């Protein structure tokens, strides 16, 4: 079950995007699909005798031409023995980056969508003296401020998902900057809050033509002439935007509005956030990156004739 055989890579305007995996892990089907009955989800995703599905751990590498950006750092190698019993500890990200010619020192920027252990695990490692140090020594790290505040005092329900060693040392040293949502990290790379999975999870939007605005809301507030000139309204324009939507839509099996994970703290917000996302991602043909899909790390989403959402290949 090796998901590293094929390199997933695409060009988005000036940027080159690649997916690197930290491996796969077993995830209970009920946890993965929430209130969706197994008779429905098992048509899309296989489960073993213990009801475990296979979840991926996809990081997105963006080469802008000037800088190298890593979105999400997988599960890492610091899980407790108890957590290893549930999840294993695939810990393949650094090897896979290395096989793709990327050394930890090459990473200029790391962005975490949220601070659950399976999204920021390789932010840090233990050195040979047992001290927690940044895995990517030169990188500036970014994470949502609301996530970090929440992670200080999580609820009993999800306390197990937060491992302070993944972020507290970076915040304390000043290497991690906390974001409120809406910030531009680099020209063409911005973050935006999509509540649901957690209150403050942020998607990472990548616009491969940073000189042209692509993220602005295109509501009725804009003048007709501005909308007419909007290049995204012209069919056949080159694809320009990708979005790491993280646990809002973790796999291609979760693209239906009501198919959320049972981990989601605010399931009704998940549905509202998905609607808000699709309102832009579908007409603008965004590339959606799926954080936990072991087979399809990215796709373009569109409704079929019956209105059911489908994922279309982008490579
Ligand atoms: Zn999560």
Instruction: Label the overall shape.
Output: globular
Main β-sheet, spatial strand arrangement: 1-2-3-4-5-8-9
Helix and strand string, N-terminal first?
EEHHEEHHEHEEEHHEEEEHEHEEE
Ends distance: 22 Å
- The Cα radius of gyration reads 19 Å
Which spans have pLDDT < 50 for at least 5 consecutive residues?
A: 216-235
- How would a textbook summarize the main sheet? 7 strands, mixed
The molecules bound to the chains, other than polymers, are:
zinc ion
Strand content: 25-35%
What kind of oligomer do you see?
A: single chain
Approximate helicity band:
10-25%
| Contiguous helical run count | 9
Per DSSP E runs of 2 or more residues, the count of β-strands stands at 16
Class by SSE composition: alpha+beta
Q: Average pLDDT across residues?
A: 90
Question: In words, what does this structure look like?
Answer:
This protein is of the alpha+beta class and 315 residues long. Helices cover 20% and strands 27% of the residues. A seven-stranded mixed β-sheet has the order 1-2-3-4-5-8-9. It has a seven-stranded mixed β-sheet with strand order 10-11-12-13-14-15-16, with no helix packed on it. It has a two-stranded antiparallel sheet with strand order 6-7. Residues 216-235 have low confidence and may be disordered. Bound molecules: zinc ion.
């Amino acid at each position: 079950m090796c998901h590293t055989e094929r390199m997933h890579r695409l060009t988005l305007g000036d940027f080159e995007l690649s997916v690197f995996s930290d491996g796969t892990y077993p995830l209970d089907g009920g946890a993965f699909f929430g209130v969706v009955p197994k008779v429905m989800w098992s048509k899309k995703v296989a489960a073993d005798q213990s009801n475990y599905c296979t979840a991926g751990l996809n990081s997105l590498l963006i080469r802008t031409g000037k800088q190298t950006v890593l979105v999400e750092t997988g599960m890492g190698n610091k899980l407790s023995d108890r957590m290893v019993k549930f999840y294993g500890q695939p810990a393949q990200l650094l090897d896979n980056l290395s096989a793709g010619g990327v050394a930890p020192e090459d990473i200029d920027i790391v962005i975490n969508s949220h601070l659950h252990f399976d999204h920021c695990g390789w932010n840090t490692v233990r050195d040979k003296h047992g001290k927690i140090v940044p895995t990517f020594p030169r990188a500036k790290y970014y994470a949502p401020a609301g996530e970090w505040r929440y992670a200080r005092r999580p609820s009993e329900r999800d306390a197990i998902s937060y491992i302070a060693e993944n972020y507290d040392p970076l915040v304390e040293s000043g290497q991690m900057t906390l974001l409120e949502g809406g910030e531009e990290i680099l020209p063409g790379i911005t973050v935006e809050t999509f509540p649901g999975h957690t209150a403050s999870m942020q998607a990472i939007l990548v616009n491969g033509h940073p000189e042209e605005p692509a993220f602005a809301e295109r509501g009725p507030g804009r003048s007709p002439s501005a909308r007419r000139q909007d290049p995204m309204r012209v069919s056949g324009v080159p694809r320009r935007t990708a979005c790491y939507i993280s646990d809002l839509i973790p796999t291609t099996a979760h693209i239906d509005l009501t198919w959320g994970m049972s981990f989601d703290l605010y399931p009704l917000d998940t549905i509202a956030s998905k609607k808000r996302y699709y309102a832009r991602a579908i007409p603008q043909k965004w590339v959606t990156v799926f954080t936990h899909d072991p087979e399809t790390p990215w796709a373009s989403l569109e409704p079929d004739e019956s209105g059911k959402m489908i994922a279309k290949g982008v490579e």
